[in-house]
Every structure is written in C-alpha cells, then in structure tokens.
Design brief:
The complex is a heterodimer of chains A (516) and B (502). Chain A has helices at residues 5-20, 28-49, 79-97, 105-124, 128-137, 139-149, 154-187, 194-198, 204-221, 230-237, 240-265, 267-272, 274-293, 298-317, 322-353, 364-367, 369-383, 389-402, 406-431, 448-466, 469-489, 493-498, and strands at 58-66, 71-77, 200-201, 513-514. Chain A is mainly alpha-helical and 516 residues long. In chain B, helix 10 (249-255) packs antiparallel against helix 14, helix 13 (307-328) packs antiparallel against helix 18 (422-448) and helix 14 (331-357) runs antiparallel to helix 17 (404-418).
C-alpha cells in the first residue's frame, strides 16, 4: 500500500469525506480530526521515506487515463513539493482541531477534507491535466467555505474569488493545450506529462506567448499586483479556517506552479520577463505594505502583509539561480506557517470579541499574555527577524536576486523594513498601553484547543529559523536540478548568462526534442 | 453540365432503412393498440416506446459493426448514406430519446402523457431525425427535418399550458420560415449543380471551380439561416428561450440535445466542403457567428432570473461552442463535436430533469415563475441531496474538471489550438469563464442563501418516481465518472469520423 503513498495521500481524505456524510453531526468534528491526523501521519511517512539525495521525482505512479489523448494519472514529488504537501495536511489537521463551534459543522468538515484532497493533488500532479483538474477543483470547496461561513459580503467575495481564478486558469488551459500541441508536433504523440514537456526546447517567441498564458493563471492565484484585488475580499469575508488554508496553502499553488511549469519549460522567456516581473514583485511588496499600514481591520493588515510577502517569494523565484529559488521555496513554507498562524491569531480574538477593528483593542498584552506572546513571535517572524523561519527564506531570496540586480534588491530590502513598520505599529496599537476598552478587561486567554493549534506552529517557526537544514537540503537538491535543466535548455545567450551553470554534472542526461 | 446520377438496382439495399423503420412501426403499433384497447396506463406506452428504441439502438450497433468492417453503406438509390457521422448522430439521438422517454413516468399526473398519440408522435419524431442525419440528399434531409419538427411542435403544445401553446406556435412559425429558407437555399444549389446530393454538388462545384460564387453564397446564406434556426445560432435564436420556457422541462432538455445534433450533422455535411474549398467569406461569417453565439448568449444568460431560461441561453451558447468544430473542420474538431455532445447529453438532460422533478402545478405565493432562482434558495438545507446533484450538473456545465463536460471543452479547445485557431481557443476559454458565473449563481443560491419563499419542501422532489430517480442517477454517474469512458469513446468517435472522411 505504501508504494502508492501519494495516491493514498490524495484520495484517502476524499473517500473519508464521502463516508463522512454518514457520520452523525455530533461526532463529525472528531471524525474530521481523526481522518486529518491519519492523513498527516501519511505525509510524515512521506518525509521519512523521502531520499533527500535524489534530486528528481520520487514515489512516482502512473496510470493511463486517456491514452488516445496522452493524459495519464501521473504523480510524484521532489524536494520542492514535499514540504508543501506536509504543510497542507498539517494545516488541515490543526485547522479542523481548532475549529470553534459553527453552524453546519459536518458540512464544513467534509468540505475541508475534499479541499485537502485537491491540495495534495495539485502538489503531487506531474501531468498537466491532472494538475489542472485539482487546481480547478480546489476552487469549489473554498467557494463553499467562504460563501457559507463567511462575513456579510461573503457571497460577493466567494464569487469574486472563484471567477478571478477560474478565468485566469482557463487561459492557462489554452496554454497547456498549445504546449501539448507543440509536443505533438515535435514528437508525433500527445502527452501532457510535465516531465516529457521538460524535454521540449521551444523557439523564443513560442516561449514568450506560452509564458504569458501560464503567467495569467499563476499570477491571479498568487495573487500578483494588479490581480490581487480578490484576495482582501476573500480574506476579509472568509471564516478563520478559510483564511488560514487560503493563505498557508492555496496561494502557494501559484508560486509553486511558477517553479514547476514556467521556469523549466520556458527558461528564455523567464529571463526575458525577469525584470518586468521583479518590478511588479517590488511594487507588490511596497504597495501592499503601504496599504496594510492604512488598514483599520486587523485581518486586513495580515491579508495585505501576506500579499506583500508573496512578492518576495516571486522575487526569489525569478532570481533564476539556486539561492533565490531555494529561498523562495523555503519562504513558501515559512509564509505558510507564519501567515497561517497570524490568521489563526486574528480568529482567536474575533471569536472573543466579534470584531477585528484595531481601534477596539489596546493593552491586550496584560489581559491575554500567552496570546500576546505567540502573536509577538509570529509577528517578528513575519517581519523577518533573524533566527525565525521567514528570515532564512527572505535572506536567500534577496541574496539570489542580488546576483541579478543590486538596485532592485536594495529596493526590496527597503520594502521589508516598511513591512516591519506596519506590523510593529499595529502590534503596538492592539497589545500595548492601557486597556482602554472595558469589554477587553476580562477576555479569557488562549484555551487548550487554540494552544494545540498555535504552539506547534510557534515551535516550527523557531526550529526552522534556527536550524533550517533538514528542510533546506532536499529543497536545494531539487532546485539544483531545475536550474541545471534551465541552463541546458536555454537558447539565447542572455539566458545562458543569467541562469548559472552548475559545476556538478547532471545525474541524468535528459534527451531533448526540438520544435522547428 | 449536369452530371450523371448513378443508379444501380442491385444496391437498393433496403435494409439501410431498418433503423428508421423501427420507430415508425413502433408508433403505428401504439396507435393500433389504442384502437383495440383504450385508456391504458402511460407506463405501458413508455415501456413499449423504450422497447422499440432499444431495438432501434440494437440495429444501429449492427450497422456500426458493418460500417467498421466495410465502410460506408449506401442504399435506396443512394439516398440513404450510413456513414460514421450518421451512425454517431443516430446513437446520440436514440440514446438521448431512451433517457428522455422514462421522464414521462412522473408521480404527478400530466395531461400529455395520458394520450398514446404523445408516444406515437415521439417515435415519429425520432425516425424523422434519423432520416435527417442518414442521408446527403437535400430533399430527404428536408422531409426528415419537417417530419420531426411537426411532431415536435405538437409534443410541445400537448403540455397544455397557455405558455406551451405560445411556445408551440412560436416554434412552428419560426420553423416554417426556416423551412422556407431551406427550400429556397436547396433550390438554388440544385439550379447551380443539377443535383440534390451534397457530394454531387460538391463535385460539380469543385469541377467548375466555383464560377457561380455569388449564387452559391445566396444559397449558403439561406441554408445557414434555416439550419441556424434549428440549432439556435445567434441571430436566429430568438425562439429558443421562449420555447424552452413554455415546454415542459424534460421536453426542453430534449430539445436542447436531439434536434441540434441532427442539425449539426447536416451543417457538417453541407458546409465542410464549402469551407475546405477556401470560400473566405464563409469562413468569416462562420467565425463571427460562432463567436457571437457563444458570447452574446452567455451575456443574456447572465441576467436571467429564471433557471430554465438561463439553461436555454446556456444551451445556445453551447451550440455556438460546438459550431466552432464546423469552422475548424479537422478530424479532431469533428470528433470533438460528437464527444462534446455525448457528454452534454448526460449533463444537460440531468440538469433539466432536476427542474422537471420539481415541476409545480400551482405556484406558491410570492413565487414569480416555476423555476425562478429564488425557488432554489437555501436548497441545501431543505433537500441536501437534490442540491448536491444539481450543483454537480452546474459545475459540469461550467466546465470544472473532472466532470463530464470539461473533457468535451478540453478536446474542443485543443482541436482549435491544433488547427491554428489560437484566438478562437482563447475566446472559447474566456466564454467558459463568463458561463461560470451564471452556473455558479444557482450553486450560490442553493448553498449559500437562506430559503426565500415559503415552499413545502416536498416540492423539490414532487415528481420524483423511481424511473426519474434512475435517469437522474444515470446522468449523475455519467457526469462524475465520464473520465473512465473517455478513452474508448474518443477512439470510437475518431475512427467513425475519420472513416467517413470528415
């Protein structure tokens, strides 16, 4: 059975969700915790069995779905996707465990388990159509979570979320079909396998168009400026669990897809678009940081800061060298842990006061010391304090991009400082000073459920900040092979120069096909 | 020059008529039965019709085996043309009819099903559509088209609501106009080529290198308009929403599938050679019609407040989407047309059947129409199972993978990309995104809103009998697990389309 560990990871929660319809609603939560715990154990086994010295795909499974059209159920993971999958199952588990009482609990649990299936599927898929299937399917549970359990504007927010992503990914689908067509032209067979597509060397003008098509799909998902407008609505209206999973895992689909699709398939286009995208990323960092500073609503501050940090991930990815990409993958994990935790924390205070307005708070540190401590650590992690998780990723991302452009890196570095200002000032407003609002006087501190969710996140944030090697090393190995592939495939001299050649010889010589 | 029409008496091959004769015999049989023993229960007629249709389906399987072995079968003075296209279309027609006819077994009593004539007319209609697709003779196409359409008008009117009469009369008037157009267009083609058989016409035109191009274009305009009426292409679509609204939901679902596939096959036979011959004007017109049909119908569907009207406009949009296959014209595109339509049959019939089981005889106070969006508000709380199934059909229509229609869209867009129509592919993709909104609107109403009208919760499954539940279950399974059947389906369809030379 463990030979098919990835299929197990993908379909176990889905089957469990379907069986969950039978479970009585009073026991639904316990059922959800049990299932997601087993799922988490599976994902930990994945890490245990993962060979970090291998840079290529592991645990691969293949099953023909539509051989006539080259669509196969093809899954496998490398160091890049491994930790995101673990993080997804981890957040599903602690998300379900820490759920406050809501109406229609059973529906929520079933939806979350379906969502877990799609998340595992996206990060494990190695066939473009399977990837697309899970990518689209992930919209449906999230639509329901925001639309059924969200705030007053929830329907508007959920539809906006759905349509934005749906429209973008349909453009991406056309790109995928065109890619498959080009592959068919070059080799005479249909294939949607990403690994097969890696072998294809495309002329630069095709690369540019295809890059643009994929970019629209990915950029909306990340979301990159100026496609980010759906995200504040989604976060603002979503229930805590929705925001946590959205920020921690779903947004990573976009950045992950850049590394899985855009970079290795279109190296020359990646170089061509490197500076425009870097500039967008820096605008995204600075602009959203400034918007975050102006927010009154605590959750919006966290939402905008989350967008801001996604900018650094993009910047690191488009450094196109090992340091930058490794940093951005690591920052994806860090961002997931930290912003997930911050949304949890905002949810904690919202459960108690049913408001997220910062003006309502003040002096919380004396009322809820444990809450304030964890919030403080996570906030520090978010602004990139050394020895906490985000610092490693941010530093590597910026280091990577420093090799490409000094000035842009400097700008991005400045932007991170702006980030520190708004985070610190909102922390000050909410937690320090006198307790001004009488309603805050007797708020209970964290309860055991919340501690169960938050303490592990804090431990991870500190642990990976101090000793990132166990995670960094597998990522680094896989990223190396991506960069090597990109360098080999690049056809323009500019791209050859920008994408560094690595000294070690490739472990596997990849035969390549060329499109005339 | 008039070319010789080749008649060989040995190749009369009357057996080619068998698939069409079975439903006709069935219809006559039902009528005769009624003469001897009146007032039978509708369930008997349903099962009899189903039996005849199964025989019909069996004969089609027999023909498809013969086609795979020996290629195209001609018969009856070469009027009957049993090629892959004809067989595939007949499979869809008979298959969809088999799924449709059990929908008459509602648990509430409806006027029309108590008449045996309903079932007789239905079988006549099926045979008419079968004739229409199994020939390339313009006259026989016309006869099939009219026989089927006249039966269909009557079936709609039998629903016996004032709106149904309005719908039937409207459909009839428009249909008569279209018939006139068709007759005129074919007349011009006959005048130019001296033949009423499409392949002969093509041969004559290719031989004289389209010297009479202006006249050909006149004929093409009339034929396009008349067939455009049948498959509801914009701007010839105006009857569709009203007729769908007036007809019963099950009949509307049927109309969105069967007459259109028959229309598409005729369009393919007629226009494929014209497009291949490089008549640029036709390309441009078709391109425009495809894009406008998809986009405009989508935008109209956005603003509907009635689910059935929304589905009517969405069916128009799907027709435009599929019409792109005729424009693209590659084997992959033509196969995609059939694949799309098979998958669409399951999904759309399922969606309309869900409306059909909630058909009310009397509206609750405050309810504007029988299938308004507000009727479905908060359905997840009242009838969670119905809501889930309905949402499933909506997501499939919207093209969310892995549900049925996504694969149709995938294959169709891929065929556009492969034929170099990248812009068209993008337009098709973006239209799917627009369509996502109105399908989602129903999902939002069902899952996220509170119930708006005080309706008895039994309303939503009022008509559900075992037969209806079976059909819906069948459609739902077909929608969810389409992926399993796709590979054989694609191979089967592609082989048939390719071997018929399209």
């Amino acid at each position: 059975m463990l030979d098919h560990i990835l299929s197990l990871l993908i379909f176990f929660p889905a089957i469990a969700a379907m069986m969950g319809f039978v479970v009585h609603k009073d026991s639904a939560k316990a059922y959800g915790i049990a299932v997601s715990f087993i799922e988490f154990i599976f994902s930990l086994y994945l890490w245990y069995a993962f060979d970090s010295n291998v840079s290529g795909m592991q645990f691969m499974e293949s099953l023909p779905l539509i051989p006539a059209f080259g669509i196969n159920y093809l899954v496998g993971i490398d160091g890049i996707s491994l930790f995101i999958i673990i993080m997804a199952s981890f957040f599903t588990m602690i998300g379900i465990a820490s759920l406050a009482e809501v109406k229609k609990m059973k529906n929520l649990i079933i939806t979350l388990l379906f969502l877990q299936m799609t998340m595992a599927g996206v990060f494990a898929a190695l066939d473009a159509i399977v990837f697309y299937t899970f990518w689209e399917l992930s919209l449906v549970p999230m639509l329901y979570i925001i639309g059924a359990w969200g705030g007053p504007l929830r329907i508007y927010a959920s539809i906006k979320f759905f349509l934005y992503t749906f429209a973008g990914s349909l453009v991406m689908l056309v790109g995928m079909l065109f890619m498959a067509f080009l592959y068919n032209q070059a080799t005479g067979v249909w294939s949607f396998s990403i690994l097969e597509w890696y072998r294809l060397i495309l002329p630069e003008n095709y690369q540019l168009w295809l890059f643009a098509a994929f970019f629209i799909g990915f950029a909306i998902k990340v979301p990159m400026f100026p496609f980010h407008t759906w995200l504040p609505y989604a976060h603002g209206q979503a229930p805590t669990i929705g925001s946590v999973i959205l920020a921690a895992v779903l947004l990573k689909m976009g950045t992950y897809a850049f590394i899985r699709f855009s970079l290795p398939m279109f190296p020359d286009a990646s170089v061509f678009f490197m500076f425009p995208i870097a500039i967008i990323a820096i605008i995204m960092i600075i602009y959203t940081a400034m918007v975050a500073y102006a927010q009154e609503d605590m959750k919006q501050v966290v939402a905008y800061s989350s967008v801001s940090h996604m900018g650094i991930i993009i910047l690191g990815t488009f450094a196109l060298n090992v340091e930058g990409i490794t940093g951005s993958v690591f920052l994806m994990i860090g961002h997931g842990i930290v912003s997930g935790a911050l949304f949890f924390l905002v949810g904690v205070i919202y459960d108690r006061r049913h408001t997220k307005m910062m003006s309502e708070f003040g002096g919380l540190a004396s009322v809820m010391p444990r809450y304030a401590t964890i919030f403080g650590i996570m906030m520090m992690a978010s602004v990139g304090l050394p020895l906490l998780i985000n610092f490693v990723g941010e530093f590597l991302s910026l280091l990577g991009f420093y090799n490409q452009s000094h000035i842009l890196t400097l700008l991005a570095g400045m932007a991170i400082i702006v980030g520190a200002i708004y985070m610190l000032s909102s922390f000050k407003k909410a937690f320090f000073g006198e307790v001004t609002n009488e309603k805050n006087r007797n708020l209970p501190d964290l309860n055991s459920k919340e501690i169960f969710a938050l303490v592990p996140l804090t431990i991870i944030a500190v642990w990976l900040g101090v000793y990132p090697k166990p995670v960094l090393e597998p990522i680094n190995n896989s990223v190396k092979s991506v960069v090597m592939l990109m360098h080999e495939k690049a056809i323009t001299p500019e791209a050859k120069m920008r994408i560094p050649a690595l000294e070690e010889k490739t472990l596997m010589q990849i035969p390549q096909a060329e499109v005339k | 020059m008039l070319s010789n029409v080749n008649i060989s008496l040995e190749s009369l091959n009357i057996s080619t008529l068998v698939p069409m004769l079975i439903p006709i015999i069935g219809a006559l049989f039902i009528l005769v039965l009624d003469l001897f023993k009146k007032d039978q229960n509708k369930s008997m007629y349903v099962m009899l019709s189903l039996l005849f249709m199964m025989l019909d389906f069996g004969s089609l399987i027999d023909f498809s085996l013969r086609f795979s072995a020996n290629g195209t079968i001609l018969g009856y003075f070469n009027m009957m043309l049993i090629d892959g296209l004809a067989l595939l279309a007949q499979f869809v027609i008979v298959g969809a009819s088999m799924l449709f006819i059990p929908l008459a077994l509602t648990s509430k009593r409806f006027h029309e099903f108590s008449y045996p004539e309903f079932f007789a007319l239905f079988l006549f209609m099926v045979s008419g559509f079968q004739f229409m697709v199994a020939t390339d003779n313009l006259i026989l196409i016309f006869i099939g088209l009219e026989a089927a359409s006249l039966a269909l008008y009557t079936l709609i009117a039998l629903h016996n609501r004032s709106k149904s009469f309005e719908a039937a009369v409207k459909y009839f008037t428009m249909g008569a106009l279209a018939a006139g157009f068709y007759a005129f267009g074919s007349m011009v083609l006959y005048a130019l080529s001296g033949s009423v058989e499409i392949h002969q016409i093509a041969a004559v035109f290719n031989a004289d290198e389209f010297v009479n191009l202006p006249y050909i274009l006149v004929a093409v305009v009339f034929l396009l308009a008349s067939l455009g009426f049948k498959v509801s292409l914009v701007p010839f679509h105006t009857w569709a929403p009203d007729v769908y609204e007036g007809a019963s939901a099950s009949m509307a679902g049927y109309m969105s599938i069967v007459p259109k596939i028959a229309g598409f096959v005729v369009i393919m036979r007629l226009f494929e050679f014209l497009i291949q011959s490089g008549v640029v004007w036709l390309n441009v017109v078709l391109y425009a019609i495809v894009v406008i049909t998809m986009t405009a119908a989508n935008i109209w569907a956005l603003v509907q407040s009635d689910v059935k009207r929304m589905l009517a406009y969405s069916s128009i949009s799907h027709a435009g989407f599929v019409m792109a296959a005729v424009l693209i014209g590659t084997t992959q595109a033509n196969s995609a047309l059939f694949l799309y339509w098979v998958l669409f049959t399951f999904t759309n019939l399922g969606a309309f059947s869900m409306l059909w089981i909630s058909r009310q005889k009397n509206l609750a106070p405050g309810q504007s129409s029988d299938h308004s969006y507000s009727k479905f508000a908060g359905l997840i709380k009242i009838a969670p199972f119905s809501a889930t199934i309905m949402a499933l059909f909506m997501l499939s229509l919207a093209g969310i993978p892995p549900f049925a229609l996504f694969w149709g869209k995938l294959y169709m867009i891929s065929s556009a990309v492969a034929a170099g129509y990248v812009v068209l592919a993008l337009i098709m993709a973006l239209n799917s995104a627009i369509a996502g909104y109105y399908y989602l609107k129903l999902v939002v109403y069902m899952f996220m809103k509170e119930p708006e009208i005080d309706i008895d919760s039994k309303v939503y499954t009022m008509n559900a009998s075992v037969a209806l539940r079976t059909i819906i279950g069948f459609a739902a399974i077909g929608t969810v697990f389409a992926i399993v059947a796709l590979n054989p389906l694609i191979e089967f369809i592609t082989a048939f389309v390719y071997n018929s030379g399209y």
